[in-house]
Design the sequence.
């Protein structure tokens, strides 16, 4: 078998869910957008529901439809992108709750689905989603009269604890919502860790559930083991991979492993990346290709059958650093060819 | 609808197939690994089969099983990773042809599936897959006695026409195979364009079929249009997106579009990237987030409903340059959330 095995530890997921839930007195909701951050929407959401999650967030209505099929009737499914043109039948039939982002969306929702539950998303400075303060001031009485299930916003810099933007967005959110009765929410994983001022009535952990920073106490959820196709000796002066970018400076043993950028192993990682054979780090050599990667295994005492890209020795954040990116992107890029095993 | 639409022009695919087939007198085989470079294995392979393709290549046996289900009994399906431990039932039941990479794989194949077709992959200097010259010399008589259907190798630098590695690998391949009867293959898309010396009995176009360089005459196959969720005014000094990395220097109109790195839009593109509204280029502002991107649409006369990331104004290679990568990675990263429409 030349496909890699991605192991997803659902007990670790639940442990992270419990840890993040316990960090706040507010109602916890699970963010499972982007196929549960690449780990599989149905198995992840079903396990979180078993562990007590009653509210979920997805990015788009189509994800909400898939989630409703996985979870059945009970849980609340909130949609960050709100009520887009064309979404009405999905929102109605799957009983989704759109987080309304603009007056346009609000009018569409009230006209298409009068009486159907909705939330309101406010922009507190990120300038990405939600109503601006002036827009909100103009429509808030109309909106609140329809009893939104949630009024929420999102922090732009919560992963940096001491960024002044956090307090600024908190102040803005309080100014826009201090006198309303609807439940309020501001914090995702980073916001939970900023402390109780940020928790309001509902918190929305996402990346922390899946073992990623900024939740430093997260238990790792994923392991990725990639099969070795073959191992060869290369002599001094020989090159490895596309473009001859790596040249052997001493006699070397090179393993070719069966995964590449088509599996979400970002090509830019290139030679900064390592894998592990047990506790031994082994470096990538040459360019990452579409389906294969060369790895220098000269230092190993035994020929490995597989190498670890993610696991006890390399977290999603370790691997993210190889490509100068964030653990979130490593998770959501996890490829479709991997054999997914749920523990 | 907040999901983007990925249009795949199967007529353009066939035009590229015909163009690359006509560039050589050899038997053309289609490379459809990695879900046909992200465009959908079944629809792509079925259309190529209609257009006359009789031989296909995939990376791993699992892809071969899926391809056999899509194509039925006739076509030949070759597997680059060869005969791995555990592959035997897949190779047998789906009638796959492994490209044997090592003596270990050869022994496994002969023992597990005597009489079952196979090819041989030789390493001519890339040091990635295939038997080394000495290994090949030791087993070639045994191997050739079993009538391999193909003896092949792969070029490391074919995208750079004048790289001396090309002639060196050609010489090595000729030395290793000049006196054999089995059909031979060395060239993928880049190798086809290097000219007839590189064509041998079979050529293996891949990326060129899908509209990517180095096939400069390729017809674009994909278009990607991303819906706008909302558009807002931002004042001088306001920031957009995670980490406040973009600040408005003049009053601006910012569109939030509904796709992000979870859809394979590589996060590293960030502010180097543009999209298009008709023929007008519009720049990304701030960080690409998981499900959304901010775009400066100040210069547009009308509010767009969607923006083009791939299409007539931006090829896969244009977009690749935003992330300092290659078109291949843009194709194979195309996300699962897109609504795929085949033209």
Sequence:
């Amino acid at each position: 078998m030349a496909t890699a095995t991605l192991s997803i530890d659902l007990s670790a997921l639940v442990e992270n869910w419990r840890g993040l839930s316990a960090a706040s007195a507010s109602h916890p909701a699970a963010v499972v957008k982007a196929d549960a951050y690449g780990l599989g929407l149905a198995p992840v959401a079903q396990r979180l529901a078993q562990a007590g999650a009653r509210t979920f967030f997805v990015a788009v209505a189509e994800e909400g439809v898939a989630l409703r099929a996985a979870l059945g009737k009970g849980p609340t499914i909130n949609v960050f992108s709100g009520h887009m043109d064309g979404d009405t039948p999905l929102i109605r039939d799957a009983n989704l709750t759109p987080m309304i982002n603009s007056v346009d969306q609000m009018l569409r929702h009230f006209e298409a689905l009068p009486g159907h539950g909705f939330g309101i998303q406010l922009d507190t400075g990120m300038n990405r989603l939600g109503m601006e303060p002036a827009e909100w001031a103009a429509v808030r009485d109309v909106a609140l009269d329809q009893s939104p299930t949630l009024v929420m916003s999102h922090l732009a810099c919560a992963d940096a604890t001491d960024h002044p933007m956090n307090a600024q967005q908190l102040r803005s959110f309080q100014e826009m919502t201090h006198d309303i009765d609807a439940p309020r929410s501001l914090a995702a994983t980073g916001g939970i860790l900023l402390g109780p001022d940020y928790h309001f009535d509902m918190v929305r952990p996402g990346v922390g559930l899946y073992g990623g920073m900024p939740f430093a106490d997260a238990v790792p959820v994923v392991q990725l083991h990639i099969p070795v196709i073959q191992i060869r000796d290369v002599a001094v002066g020989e090159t490895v991979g596309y473009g001859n970018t790596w040249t052997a400076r001493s006699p070397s043993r090179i393993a070719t492993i069966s995964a590449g950028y088509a599996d979400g192993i970002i090509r830019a990682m290139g030679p900064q990346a390592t894998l592990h054979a047990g506790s031994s780090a082994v470096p990538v050599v040459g360019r990452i290709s579409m389906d294969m990667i060369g790895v220098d295994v000269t230092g190993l005492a035994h020929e490995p059958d597989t190498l670890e890209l993610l696991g006890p020795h390399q977290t999603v954040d370790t691997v993210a650093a190889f490509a100068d990116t964030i653990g979130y992107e490593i998770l959501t890029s996890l490829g479709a060819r991997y054999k997914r095993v749920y523990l």
Q: What stands out?
A: Chain A touches chain B through 75 residues (CB under 8 Å). DSSP finds eleven helices and 19 strands in chain A. The first strand of chain A starts at residue 5 and ends at 8.
